[in-house]
Amino acid sequence: MCVVILNYNGRKLLGRFLPLIAKTDYKPLELVVVDNASSDDSCGWLRARWPQVTLLRSAKNLAWAGGNNIGIRYALSKRHRYIVLANNDIQPHPSWVRQAVAHAQATPQDRIIGFHLFNQEVSRAAYEQACQRLAPIAVRPVDDVTGCAMFCDAEVFRDLGLFDETYWIYAEETDFEKRAKLAGMQMAEINVPIWHLAEGTMSRVIYKRSYLQMRNAIRMTFKMDGVGAGLLVVKTVLNRACNPFLRLESVSSDYTLMRYRPGKWPVNTALALAAIGWNLIALPCTLRAGWRDKALIAHYRERLATH
Question: How far apart are CA 182 and CA 193, in angstroms?
Answer without folding.
Answer: 28
